[in-house]
Amino acid sequence: MISYFIKSASCLALLLFFYHFILEKEKMHSFNRFYLLIGVVISLLIPFATITTNSIPETLTAVTTLTEPKFSPENMATIEVEEVIDYTKYFAGFYLLISSLLLIRFGRNLFKIIQKIRLNEKINHANATLVLVDDKILPHTFWKAIFINKNEYENGNIEEELFTHELTHVTQKHTIDVLLIEFLQILFWINPLFIFLKKAVQLNHEFLADEKVIHHHKNTFQYQHLLLNKAAWNNEYYLASNLNYSLTKKRLKMMTTQSSQSKIWIKKLAVIPLLAGFVFLFAERIEAQEKQEIIEVVEELPRKGIITENEVYKNYINRNAYVTYKNKEGKKVSKLYTELTNEEKKRLVLPPPPPLKLKKVTPTKAQFEALKDNSKFAVWLDGKVVKNETLNNYKHTDFARYSNSFVYKNARSKRFPQENQAHLETTKYYEANNKKRVADFESFKKNYNKEITEIVEQKSYKNDYEIRKMIDDVSEFYDLENYNKLNKLYESKRTEIPHYVNSSKERQNILNTNFSILGTVYFNLTKSEKKKTKRPIPPHDPYLKLKKNNLVFYKLRNELTEEDKLLIPPPPPVPNASKEEILKAKKAYQDWKKRTGNDIPPPPPPRKKNN
To answer: Which residues of 521-576 form beta strands (DSSP E)?
Structure first.
């Protein structure tokens, strides 16, 4: 964004410079009007333009390719993270505040003009509307309204030249230009050049109106004398065109200026190369490259509380990386990336990981031939250092991956004094490496939740709140594979002898907690995942849990009496239930409560499913 503002401001500055020193001095005011308006639009759009170039370097000395980061226990990276204040949002807020104040000022001035038109007497005159006001003012224009003093109009004291001048502002619709520049100034107030642009536009409007007066009345001297007599008046409405402009001297000088047509045409044609030069100077340059397949980890839209495969991949890439940051007390803390909490990971700003399958980068013939020069290049072939002449046994198309990096002078050694270090991978080596990376990642994913499952099993004796909090902190807990593992573990415990109904209070609490956890995980599965598995079975199954006067007891279905059946609580409303269905469910619950003498919290409201 900063780059855009700089380019746009620079472009507008050069346009205004050219206008002030080349175009403004000539009697070509209609052309100048459109030059200024189109010029400001061009200055806003040119930074978005792109120039595509096709270039093949003859040597590799200017080519720098970043190789993928490699992590190993022997070579661990240290990531320095500093807690910094993000000033972007403060700047954006300040920027919007100033724009809002300018917009209010603009609206207030517009409202004052409209009110003045509405509250005063109006007379149709030619293509305009005369607004007769009591204020002692000189004629000035906004849109089709010409404001004039009522007494002077009725007494016939307003000169014909003034009427002609203001009618020119109306017929040529100069107000549109002013409103456009004013609106752009509200959006781009940070660029002070819009102040000079607005003055240039308004001065050119006066040139156009003066030209019309002189052409129509053919009395230049008398009109100049009239302007000098009126020069003391100042219009309070900055949106209105008015007779007296602060640069009256320039207007008087322009009236007597003589311009040759050939000179005017040369200056007009000079605008074409000027604009072409701006495109070349300020447009974004991109180099056309051969289209290559990029294989990356495909990320599904994340579900709430679910870790995506890309996030798992990020953990895989940074699993051996150390992170150093300052805590709230200002002390430096150093941890493995895998030891960070979710909150700490969110505060990290890391470069994007390389793709799981590295893309093919085949060297060009010129690049490959340049690598044979051992004075400039040290060469690694399939991970091993080789002599440059070894490349004579290969063609450039034999390689599926190529990279080169420039080595600074202080980093060179006696063994490798060259300026460049190039790495080449044959197709066989490249494919084997990609397969190994995929296999390693799949193995990492497979074991990713193993530790979490073990933690749940070890903490099963803790209360429900603590385990739920632990699960919420581990967002990757909710997936089908993990659910099946936990359900299998739960079933092995649930089916142990004695049955839940005949077990101790401690064992019942354990099974209740595990069942609650499983229910939470099951609810967060997708529809497709739910179809591949089963709901968790209540720990007291096949018994029914009944309650009377807040006392719990269990019975098999075939043992239920008619009185027992009345103790079965009514079902809660279904997800996305209507208001009538919710009210019906509430009434059924109230009836059940009175019937059973139970005093327990009502069933929870239906949850809306996100999947």
So the answer is: 544-548, 551-555
Mapped onto helix, strand or coil, the DSSP state of residue 338 is helix
Q: Are 166 and 146 in contact (CB under 8 A)?
A: yes
Question: Which of the listed ranges 43-47, 322-326, 514-518 does the model predict with the highest average pLDDT?
Answer: 43-47
What is the separation, in whole angstroms, between the first and last Cα of the chain?
37
CA distance 183 to 329: 48
The DSSP-derived string for 400-454 is: EEEEEEE--GGG--SS---SEEEEEEEHHHHHHHHHHHHHHHHHHHHTTTHHHHH
Sign of CA dihedral 160, 164, 166, 171: positive
Query: Hey, how many other C-beta atoms are within 10 angstroms of the C-beta on 609?
Result: 11
β-strand partners of 148? 132
Residue type at position 333: V
The bridge status of strand 322-326 relative to strand 78-81 is: parallel
Question: Exposed/middle/buried for 386, CB within 10 Å: 0-12, 13-18, 19+?
Answer: middle
- For residue 145, count other CB atoms closer than 10 A to its CB: 21
pLDDT, tens only, 292-331: 333 333 333 344 444 566 777 777 887 777 777 777 677 7
Task: Say how many CA atoms lie within 13 Å of 574 toward its Cβ.
Answer: 4
DSSP lists the bridge partners of residue 381 as 384, 424
Handedness of CA 469, 475, 480, 484 (dihedral sign): negative
Q: What is the DSSP string of 479-513?
A: SHHHHHHHHHHHHHHHTSSSPGGGS-HHHHHHHHH
Give alpha helix (H) positions in 283-415: 309-317, 342-347, 365-370
Q: What is the DSSP letter of 302?
A: P
Q: 336: which 2 tokens?
A: 């493995």
Separation between Cα atoms, residue 566 and residue 556, nearest integer Å: 15
Structure tokens at 359: 């893309």
Report the distance separating Cα 58 and Cα 143, nearest Å. Answer: 62
**DSSP percent split of the chain into helix, strand, coil, nearest 5:** 50, 15, 35
pLDDT in tens, 374-407: 999 999 999 899 999 999 999 999 999 998 988 8
Q: How many residues does the chain have?
A: 611
